[in-house]
Amino acid sequence: MNLFRDFQYEIIKVIEDLEQEGLLPRGLDTARVACEPPREAAYGDVTTNVAMVLAKPAQRNPRELAALVAERLGIHHAVEKAIVAGPGFINLTLARTFWHGRLRDVVEAGTAYGDSTVGAGREVNVEYVSANPTGPMHVGHARGAVVGDVLAALLAKAGFDVTKEYYVNDAGAQVDVLARSLHLRYREALGETIGAVPEGLYPGEYLKEAGHALARRDGEKWLGEPEDVWLAPLRAFAIDAMMTMICDDLAALGVVHDVFSSERALVESGRVDEAFRLLEDRGLIYTGVLDPPKGMTPEDWEPRPQTLFRSTEFGDDVDRPLRKSDGTWTYFASDAAYHLDKFRRGFAIMIDVWGADHGGYVKRVAAAVNALTEGKGALDVKLCQLVSLLDAGEPVKMSKRAGTFVTLKEVVDEVGKDVVRFIMLTRSNDATLDFDLRKAVEQTRDNPVFYVQYAHARACSVFRNAATEMPNIATDDSSLLNVSLDSLTAVEEIDLIRLMAGWPRIVEGAAEAHEPHRIAYYLQELAAAFHGLWNKGNADSDARFLVADEARAAARLALVRGLQLVIASGLQVLGVKPVEEMH
RNA sequence: GCGCCCUUAGCUCAGUUGGAUAGAGCACGAGCCUUCUAAGCUCGGGGUCGCAGGUUCGAAUCCUGUAGGGCGCGCCA
Q1: What mean pLDDT is predicted for residues A127-153?
Q2: Strand B close residues, chain A 206-225, CB < 7 angstroms
Q3: Cβ of A461 < 7 Å from strand B?
Q4: Residue A98: its pLDDT value, please?
Q5: Full set of structural domains in chain A with CATH
Q6: Of A78, A212, A386, A484, which one's alpha carbon is 20 to 30 angstroms from that of A405?
Q7: Angle subtended at Cα A112 by Cα A106 and Cα A115, rounded to the nearest 5 degrees
Q8: Closest residue to B21 by CA to C1' distance?
């Protein structure tokens, strides 16, 4: 389906033919032969560097070699002309009928257009959100949630077997604090006056409801009991309540995970001990004393012996501790074991989506994956930079203490999930992002969500008008597939098809690079091309889609249908609903 | 002090894994439209890709150094 890949095969076939005929030395390495759209449209439709890449090994002058290959490519039925340019590029211009064929591909495939097999069914695990189960999600979490969710959808479209996973950090001291905070709210629910929430406990109102729920379920069972009696059951209850709340918030954003992995279960099942022994057996564990970080010794620094993993042997900057002084595992130890667990569940490809504040953690986890999987597991960590929440250009002040903390749910309620999802992808994940609540819902040219949605709505509007104005034209897909496209000759029309035909390549490229934001950018470009064509109809009534000549109108309806389908296909990956009309 | 990320037009940012004359939106400038396919259209000016070296046919992209900004830096997760 990716036409550039198709031409790449054609080119490699030509090279092989030339080798067979003795015109080129045998066994040339064609791995670096690229086939892509040229930067300048004037150069044609497809460009290849084959001659420049093979010139040296073939001991030929690049332009001369290019001429040889271009001559063979010129014979191809889809190629109108093949010319040699610059230092040895071969530029192919494709026949108009070729593009008409690609439009038919789109209409035939529907929103499945762009589906690819490059993933070849390989299993990928995308772990994202993984927010601590101690409170509601805030806006900062939204970015990682969207990036992970769309990346997963993108990989699935590209033919990978994707599992979406959430790692529940339910094992550390913080969930004990959560349990104590719940106990307070539980007493409150049973009529006690608790006053101010003591320092060190979670003061948020969100635990009140959980306190009432616990009181309803268990009555006065935990009143007056010592902490060691109620801690574990209340902790479980609280985590459950928090996870339910988090999942509800995520669902409102359209984010649903396949698997939830518990850190506590990992530890209790002995899988951390197992990973530790594995490292020990490989001689990667020792007891040592770390130097303080140069230039910023912490105030309470004192040298002490620790159980360390030799992560420096795998590219880390210092060796990392695996045990706390009380003998329990550090977070890193269980996270290392968690990644081994994912690998053993069949995921040789693992993607973690984290906030930028965890950037310092990447090397040690990568080192652990490398050591534990003997280099067979591939980990890619996508770090999401900060999101600044604005309202009409003014920063929204956020502070947990002042209670002006903006939750994910509030933002989704305010602007809608589709807007949040799209805006979160209008920047590369490693650039910071401004999210302006006001601008996000404006219906103007510079709101990308509106702009793309509007293109789809306009396409729908054309079909609504066609039904009343041109009732003789059958507009179902199978009818449109049989329409003659010969009248589609305008450069803008062919340009639009060319863009649509580039969709499969965008999907593959974005999936392989793990860069979901490319989809949002592509959709803006596609929408712009369609709006341009539409505007042409404003100035020149012959350029409208619904013209008196029914054969021509039908061909243009096929074009509009194709556009509508590719936009819908892209929005589907983003998890954004394509709207049929604006209001 | 060390590590990671960022630095591209006045502003906010893309840049197809090393390709040809570096792009988009906004802003700015000049025209057009006063209508229908609703919330404008066309054209234009604007760049030493932070800086300096290196790698090669070819660098915004890779390597080294350097400046500025962000994040992080021994038992928190």
Answers
A1: 94
A2: none
A3: yes
A4: 96
A5: 3-94 (3.30.1360.70), 173-252 (no CATH), 444-574 (1.10.730.10)
A6: A212
A7: 100
A8: A40
